């Protein structure tokens, strides 16, 4: 991973996270498999959150720059 940018896109992480949740909700996995899915889900949720935090920061900066411009 380079800098603060996650290695996968937000959309990729979200899609995989949805798949992980479906598998956990469906059941039928061993305890070990469920734990591995849960851990992967936590990683993916963190990736999504980093993307959202970065987007929020970029929007705040853009808004501040726009507000600083004279009319």
Automatic annotation (TrEMBL):
Catalytic activity: Exonucleolytic cleavage in either 5'- to 3'- or 3'- to 5'-direction to yield nucleoside 5'-phosphates
Signal peptide: none
Subcellular location: Cytoplasm
Entries under InterPro entries matching the protein: Exonuc_VII_S, Exonuc_VII_ssu_sf
EC number: 3.1.11.6
Keyword Nuclease recorded: yes
UniProt xrefs under NCBIfam families: PRK00977.1-3, xseB
Subunit text: Heterooligomer composed of large and small subunits.
Function: Bidirectionally degrades single-stranded DNA into large acid-insoluble oligonucleotides, which are then degraded further into small acid-soluble oligonucleotides.
HAMAP family referenced in this protein's UniProt entry, alphabetically: Exonuc_7_S
Protein name: Exodeoxyribonuclease 7 small subunit
Originating organism: Kribbella pratensis
Organism lineage string: Bacteria, Bacillati, Actinomycetota, Actinomycetes, Propionibacteriales
